[in-house]
Structures are given as C-alpha cells and as structure tokens.
Design a protein that fits this description.
The structure holds 2 protein chains of 2 kinds.
Chain A: H1 2-15, E1 22-27, E2 30-36, E3 40-50, E4 53-60, E5 69-73, E6 79-85, E7 96-100, E8 103-109
Antiparallel strand pairs in A: 1-2, 2-8, 3-4, 4-6, 7-8
Chain B: H1 2-6, H2 9-26, E1 43-48, E2 52-58, E3 68-72, E4 75-82, E5 92-96, E6 101-108, E7 113-123, E8 126-133
Antiparallel strand pairs in B: 1-2, 2-8, 3-4, 4-6, 7-8
Classes of the chains: A mainly beta, B alpha+beta.
Chain lengths: 124, 145
C-alpha cells in the first residue's frame, strides 16, 4: 500500500510541466492551433492523438555551460505539456503539423461530413 | 502539523522567494533598482558561472534579424516585435493566449561583465546571450610576502 503511494507520488513529480500558451482559431475548414514551445528541438516534440485527446508535449533543451547556477528562472521546468479534447466533427487522422523557431502550428480539418453545406430549399 | 502546513502554500512560496533572493545575492545579480519583472515577454532565465553570465530569453516565433540586443552601462536590453498571423474575417478565435506586439526587457548585469565579450544565438525560439566576465575580476591568488 505505502509502496503504491510512493510510486504515484514519483509519477506526479515527473508529470510536472509548463502549460504552453496557445491560440486556437476555427474557420469553415477546421481548427488551427498555435503553441509557443520555446527551447524545444524538433526531435523533442511529441504529438499524439488517443481517442479524442490531443496531447502536445515537448522537452526543453538549453545549451548551458558547465557548472552554471540559475539565479533567476521564469521558466522553471524543462517540459511542456497540454492536452486538448477534440470534438467529433474534427478529423484527427488528418492533423497537419509545422514546427519552426519554437512555434507549433497544427491544422485539424473538419471531417468531410461536418463541412458546412448549403441546404437547398425547394419551393413547391 | 504537517497537514496544517500544507494547507498554506503561501508559506512555501515565501520560502522559495527567500531561497531565490539568496541565490541571486550569491551571484551579485539581484540588488538592482530595476529588478527583473516577472511575467513579461519574453520569459527570461539568468544564470552564471565564474567565467560568464548566461541569459536565456524564451522568444519563440521571431525573425532573429528583427531582435535588438544592446548592452549599455551595465544594462542589457532585449527588444523586438512579434507578429502573429491574423485570423481570417470569418474565423472564430476560441483561445487567445500568445503574446503579440512589441516587447522590451531589461536586465541589470553584474559589475564584472565584459561588454566586448558577448555572444548571442537564437535557436528553437530561445535567444541565448552569453557575456564573459572580466579576466581581472576572476578570483586571484594573493601571495603574502
């Protein structure tokens, strides 16, 4: 019992992460999400969709000289993490991602059936 | 007693503040009238070794050519502008958290920095400025005759 508690405590500590600021914009085609992930190299960025949860994760990797001591830290953790719930009309299998200068741009299109359609009104 | 303490996170925060103050004083970076304001853009980390002062500005999505970094009279200024793609006319903005516009942040440097030994790099959205400390200010062994 106590061992389990210890394990779960260690997990929470590992899970400590910064929440990156985002912009989320929606138009007829779908959703565009921008996330600020400064300090994350391309190979340290992890994106995954599981069910309807989209997870953005990244590890900060800074070049630091040996023996450096931090005297002022506004970015106090080395990890970003944020989870979004996708709604049904979005097509999670067609997520597009671009990552440049620490900014992630995700495009999530709407599923074909959810695209806006003009309804024809027949006059009888 | 333990429960009682954990219910007052303020105590933990003030402990952290104290710790940070002590660390800053240890590196002679803090006693400054300008301080280092929190929460501005870009977020900044400052650190140091015996040979250099290292400043990291978390400024993603900026064209490095538009960044203005200056050192004058022991004060480092990082200024620039971040332009963000404007959403189309028919778009709806659901979340709007990212910084946009002009920014300027100032850091008071320790007395022993050498303004001629500065290196600045921009990688993965982080501006890293490394400033050497003056050679004669580094610890010297004094022989007693």
């Amino acid at each position: 019992m106590s061992e389990n508690t210890a394990v779960s405590k260690a997990d929470t500590r590992d899970d400590a992460a910064l929440q990156p600021p985002v912009d989320v914009i929606e138009d007829a085609a779908g959703i565009t999400l921008y996330a600020d992930l400064a300090g994350v190299a391309k190979d340290k960025l992890h994106l995954h969709v599981e069910g309807d949860a989209l997870t953005i994760e990244g590890e900060i990797d800074l070049e630091m000289p040996e023996g450096m001591e931090n005297s002022h830290a506004e970015v106090g953790l080395a990890r970003y993490r944020r989870v979004f719930t996708l709604s049904k009309e979005l097509d999670a299998s067609k997520v597009g991602a671009e990552f440049k200068n620490g900014v992630l741009k995700l495009t999530i299109p709407k599923a074909e059936h959810a695209q806006p359609r003009k309804v024809q009104v027949r006059v009888l | 007693m333990m429960m009682y303490r954990s219910l007052f996170p303020r105590d933990v925060l003030s402990e952290l503040d104290r710790l940070q103050r002590e660390m800053q004083q240890g590196l002679h970076l803090s006693p400054s009238i300008r301080g280092i304001a929190r929460g501005g853009f870009p977020a900044m980390n400052v650190g140091g070794t015996a040979k250099s002062v290292e400043i990291y500005a978390f400024a993603p999505g900026i064209d490095p050519a538009t960044l203005d970094v200056q050192i004058e009279k022991g004060v480092l200024t990082v200024a620039g502008e971040r332009q963000i793609e404007q959403p189309g006319e028919k778009a709806t903005v659901h979340i709007d958290e990212r910084f946009a516009g002009r920014f300027r942040r100032v850091v008071t440097l320790p007395d022993d920095v050498d303004a001629n030994a500065v290196e600045a790099k921009y990688r993965d959205g982080v501006l890293h400025i490394s400033i050497g400390r003056k050679q004669d200010a580094q610890a010297r062994r004094i022989t007693i005759q």
